[in-house]
TrEMBL record:
InterPro entries: 6-blade_b-propeller_TolB-like (IPR011042), Glc/Sorbosone_DH (IPR012938), Quinoprot_gluc/sorb_DH_b-prop (IPR011041)
Gene: Hhipl2
Pfam families for the chain: GSDH
Listed name of the protein: HIPL2 protein
Listed Low complexity bias regions: 668-682
Extent of Basic residues compositional bias: 725-737, 746-755
Species of the source: Anhinga anhinga (Anhinga)
Chain spans, region Disordered: 655-755
Superkingdom, natural source: Eukaryota
Record's compositionally biased regions (Basic and acidic residues): 695-711
Record domain Glucose/Sorbosone dehydrogenase: where: 238-564
Length: 755
C-alpha cells in the first residue's frame, strides 16, 4: 500500500446529530364549555384499568418502537384479537390475549347499544399497545419521560369517540381529575391526547404510506445508507484485534489486545480482573503508530469443551534477533476455566518474516474441523521477493491460506497432520499445507454459519485482503484457488507482465473498492444471529483508515453482491435506551459471539499500547426477534478472579438529546489519518530506519494532543438506570389472568355469549 499517513488522528466517527426540541401538550384547568350532551350511558365499578394520564410527551422521534423500549417484531403466532398487527407490531400471542381480556372486562359494564356503538373505538384504543409505533403513541420513546396510559388520538377521531362514548373514559383511566373534567369537556380531553406530529396519531399513523411502506425492513436514508445502531460493550482496550468465543455454551467472550493480553468478558457484561493469558513479555509489539506486529490471532479447538485446547498466532523475536511468526497450541488450566496455562505452549509452526509488515494473523476452524491459517506475503511493497513474489510461490508459506489437522502428526515429524485432500499434496514443488495462494495480507476472515433455517451458505470463508495502491477486496476462499497477487490487485492488473501471463482461472473478488471509498479493508462476518432477523445474510465489514462500515448483500438469482454503506447514530432511528451515536474511528476487527450476534472493535489511537480501543455490538432498530425467541441460558463458570463491572464511556443518543443545546464549534479541516496497526503497507523492510524514527517522533509529538482530545470525548457520565416500568404496563399485569390460556378461554366464552 502507499506510505502510511502519520498525522493526528480523528478519534470519533459519527454522523450529524440533530436535536429535536422538547414538546409539551398544554393542559388547561377544567373550565370552558362542555361538549354536547349526548352519547351512551354506562355503569362502571371503582376498580379501573389504567392510572393517570400524563401530559408531558418528551422527545418525539417517531420511529418504530414498543412500550418495552425495543423495536417491533413479527409475532411467532397469529394474533386473534389485535389482528391488524399480526404481521408486524409489539404484541405476541400472550399480550394479545391479555388485551382481549381487558376488552371483555370493559364490555361487562356496557349495555348492548353501547357495545355496538363503542366496541370498535375501545378495541382500537386498547390495541395501540400492539402498534409498531406504540412508544410514540404512548410517549414511551424516552424512558426518562412519563408514560401515557391512553394513546395519542387524532383530534377528529378523538372528538367522535368523546361524542359517542365519553362515559367510557372512566373505564380507561382511574385518574379522578380526568374523570371529573374530561367527560364533560371534549376540547380538554382531546388536547390531552393530542400528539404534536399528527402523522403519528391514531388512526392517521395507519394511513401514512411513508411510515408504513418499508415498515420492518432495515431503514435506509435517502442515499441508501443502512441505518443501524450500536451499544458499547467494552472500552479502555489496547488496540483490540480480535474477540472469539469458546463454543462451550458459557457465552464468554475472549478479547485480545495487540500487546499479547487476552481478557475474559462474562455474559453479564463484566470483565475478570485477571487475564486469560498474558504473554506480552514474549510478543513483539511496539508503541509505534501503525506497527503491524503483535498478538494477531486466536482460535479455540472445536472440541475445546472437552480438551481445553486453543491456538494463537503472534510475532516474536528469536535468540538471533530474527523476526518470526509463531503459531502454537495451549491448554486451559484444569484448576481455573478462566486461565490459560502458559507453560503448556506447543509450537506448531514458525515462519521467518522478511519485513515488519504484512504479518497476516487469522486463525479459524472450518466446518470440516481443520484449522485454517492466513499468512501475509512477507511485507515491503509489491511482494518483491523472488521472480514472482512469495504469494505466487507455492513452495513458500507466506502469502497463503494454509490448512492443517491439529489432531494428528505428520510422518516427517511435523506437530500436525496434512489433510489428505489438500489441493497440492501431490505437487512436489508445493508445500502440502497450502490450501489457496496469491493473497497479499488477508486481515480478518470468518466462517459463515449458514442461514438459520435453510443452512444456505454454511461453511463459506470470507476474507478481506488489503490492497497495495488502488483496491481493497473481499474474497470467498476456494480450495486450490489463486487470488492473483501480485499479478492482480482487485479486478485489475498490478504487475502487468505477470498479469498478462497469469492463469485465466484466478479467483476474482466478490467485491473490490478503490481509494475513493477506503484504504485498508477489515474483513467482517455474515450475520446469522437471532436478535436482528433483518440482517440475516448481510456480510458486514469496514475500512480501517476512514472508519467506514459497509455491507454486502448477495442476489440469490445472479450470485452477485451489492454493496451498501452503513450509517450509525441517527437520532430518529437509534433513540433507544443504551444506543450510542458514535464510535472510535480506526476499525481493527469484527467478531461474532456464541449466539451469532455481530460486533466490531475500533480504537481512537492505533498504537499497541494506547488504551483507547472499544468493542461495539450492532443492533437493527427497525425489527427484532419476538420476545423470548433469543433467550439462552449460559452454562455457569466458576470465577476465581474479581469481576469488574462495565462502565460505559460513550454517551447514548437519549443522553445527547436531553443535553441543553450548545452552539456548534467550527468544523475542523480534514486531516490525514494514522496508519493501520496491522495492515497498512510501507516500503521499508524494518522498523529501525529513518522513516520509523520519524513515525516515532510524530507519534510522540501528537499523542499528548490526542490524549487531551480523548479526555474531552470520554468525559461522560454513566447512563442513568432505566426507570421502573410505568403503571401502564404494571397495572395491566395485576388485572390480567395469570395464564394466557385462561385469558384466551375467556375471550372465546365472551364471543360465544355475545353471538
Amino acid at each position: 500500500m502507499n506510505e502510511p499517513y502519520h498525522e493526528e488522528v480523528q478519534d470519533v466517527y459519527t454522523f450529524d446529530l440533530k436535536k429535536p426540541t422538547l414538546k409539551k401538550v398544554n393542559a388547561w384547568p377544567c373550565t370552558g364549555s362542555s361538549s354536547i350532551s349526548s352519547g351512551v350511558s354506562f355503569s362502571y365499578p371503582h376498580v379501573f384499568l389504567c392510572l393517570s394520564l400524563l401530559c408531558l410527551i418528551g422527545s418525539l422521534l417517531g420511529h418504530p418502537q414498543c412500550l418495552d423500549y425495543g423495536p417491533p417484531f413479527q409475532p411467532p403466532f397469529q394474533l386473534e384479537f389485535c389482528s391488524a398487527y399480526e404481521n408486524f407490531g409489539c404484541c405476541d400471542q400472550e399480550r394479545d390475549n391479555s388485551i382481549a381480556s381487558k376488552y371483555w372486562d370493559i364490555m361487562d359494564y356496557i349495555d348492548p347499544q353501547g357495545r355496538k356503538l363503542c366496541g370498535t373505538y375501545i378495541k382500537d384504543i386498547l390495541c395501540q399497545e400492539c402498534s409498531p409505533y406504540a412508544a410514540h403513541l404512548y410517549d414511551a420513546e424516552n424512558p426518562q419521560t412519563p408514560l401515557r396510559n391512553l394513546p395519542g388520538l387524532c383530534f377528529d377521531y378523538c372528538s367522535e369517540f368523546h361524542f359517542n362514548c365519553r362515559s367510557a373514559i372512566s373505564l380507561l383511566t382511574s385518574d379522578k381529575h380526568i374523570q371529573e373534567c374530561c367527560e364533560t369537556n371534549k376540547t380538554l380531553f382531546c388536547n390531552l391526547l393530542h400528539l404534536h406530529d399528527e402523522d403519528y396519531c391514531f388512526p392517521n399513523v395507519l394511513k401514512n404510506t411513508a411510515l408504513n411502506r418499508n415498515l420492518g425492513s432495515v431503514v435506509e436514508d435517502r442515499k441508501g445508507c443502512l441505518q443501524l445502531c450500536l451499544t458499547e460493550v467494552a472500552n479502555g482496550l489496547r488496540n483490540p484485534l480480535l474477540m472469539v468465543h469458546a463454543n462451550d455454551h458459557t457465552h464468554r467472550m475472549f478479547v485480545a489486545e495487540q500487546v499479547g493480553v487476552i481478557w475474559v468478558y462474562l455474559p453479564d457484561g463484566s470483565r475478570l480482573e485477571e487475564p486469560f493469558l498474558d504473554i506480552k513479555s514474549i510478543v513483539l509489539a511496539t508503541p509505534w503508530v501503525g506497527d503491524e506486529r503483535g498478538f494477531l490471532g486466536m482460535a479455540f479447538h472445536p472440541k475445546y469443551k472437552y480438551n481445553g485446547k486453543f491456538y494463537i498466532y503472534y510475532s516474536y523475536m528469536d535468540k538471533n534477533q530474527v523476526e518470526k511468526i509463531r503459531i502454537s497450541e495451549l491448554k486451559v488450566l484444569a484448576s481455573d476455566a478462566n486461565k490459560a496455562d502458559p507453560h503448556s505452549e506447543r509450537n506448531l509452526l514458525e515462519l521467518e518474516e522478511p519485513a515488519a509488515n504484512h504479518n497476516g494473523g487469522q486463525l479459524l476452524f472450518g466446518v470440516d474441523g481443520y484449522m485454517y491459517l492466513f499468512t501475509g506475503d512477507g511485507g515491503k511493497a509489491g511482494d518483491p521477493f523472488g521472480k514472482f513474489g512469495n504469494a505466487q510461490n507455492k513452495s513458500i508459506l507466506l502469502g497463503k491460506v494454509l490448512r492443517i489437522d491439529v489432531d494428528g502428526k505428520s510422518p516427517d515429524g511435523k506437530p500436525y497432520r496434512i489433510p489428505p485432500d489438500n489441493p497440492f499434496v501431490s505437487d512436489p514443488k508445493a508445500c502440502p499445507e497450502v490450501y489457496a495462494y496469491g493473497v497479499r495480507n488477508m486481515w480478518r476472515c470468518a466462517v459463515d454459519r449458514g442461514d438459520p433455517v435453510t443452512k444456505r451458505g454454511r461453511g463459506r470463508i470470507f476474507c478481506g485482503d488489503v490492497g497495495q495502491n488502488r483496491f481493497e477486496e473481499i474474497d470467498i476462499i476456494v480450495k486450490g484457488g489463486n487470488y492473483g497477487w501480485r499479478a492482480k490487485e482487485g479486478f485489475e492488473c498490478y504487475d502487468t507482465k505477470l498479469c498478462h501471463n497469469s492463469s485465466l482461472d484466478d479467483i476474482l473478488p466478490i467485491f473490490a473498492y478503490g481509494r475513493n471509498v477506503g484504504k485498508s479493508v477489515t474483513g467482517g462476518y455474515v450475520y446469522r444471529g437471532c436478535e436482528s432477523p433483518n440482517l440475516n445474510g448481510l456480510y458486514i465489514f469496514g475500512d480501517f483508515m476512514n472508519g467506514r462500515l459497509m455491507a454486502l448483500q448477495e442476489d440469490d438469482k445472479t450470485n452477485k453482491w451489492k454493496k451498501q454503506d452503513i450509517c450509525i447514530g441517527s437520532t430518529r432511528a437509534c433513540a433507544f435506551p443504551g444506543m450510542i451515536s458514535s464510535y472510535s474511528k480506526f476499525i481493527t476487527s469484527f467478531a461474532e459471539d456464541e449466539a451469532g450476534e455481530l460486533y466490531f472493535m475500533s480504537t481512537a489511537y492505533p498504537s499497541a499500547y494506547a488504551p483507547h480501543g472499544s468493542l461495539y455490538k450492532f443492533i437493527d432498530p427497525a425489527r427484532r426477534a419476538p420476545p423470548g425467541k433469543c433467550k439462552y441460558k449460559p452454562v455457569p463458570v466458576k470465577t476465581k478472579s474479581k469481576r469488574i463491572s462495565f462502565v460505559p464511556r460513550a454517551k447514548t443518543v437519549l443522553e445527547l438529546l436531553n443535553e441543553p443545546s450548545t452552539p456548534k464549534p467550527p468544523k475542523k479541516s480534514s486531516t490525514p489519518t494514522a496508519a493501520s496497526p496491522t495492515k497498512a503497507s510501507t516500503g521499508k523492510p524494518a522498523p529501525s530506519g529513518k522513516k520509523r524514527q520519524k513515525i516515532k517522533a510524530e507519534a510522540k509529538s501528537r499523542k499528548p494532543k490526542q490524549e487531551e482530545k480523548l479526555a474531552r470525548v470520554s468525559r461522560t457520565t454513566r447512563a442513568p438506570p432505566l426507570p421502573k416500568k410505568s403503571s401502564h404496563l404494571t397495572r395491566s399485569k395485576k388485572l390480567l389472568p395469570k395464564k394466557a390460556a385462561l385469558a384466551k378461554e375467556k375471550v372465546k366464552r365472551r364471543r360465544k355469549d355475545s353471538s
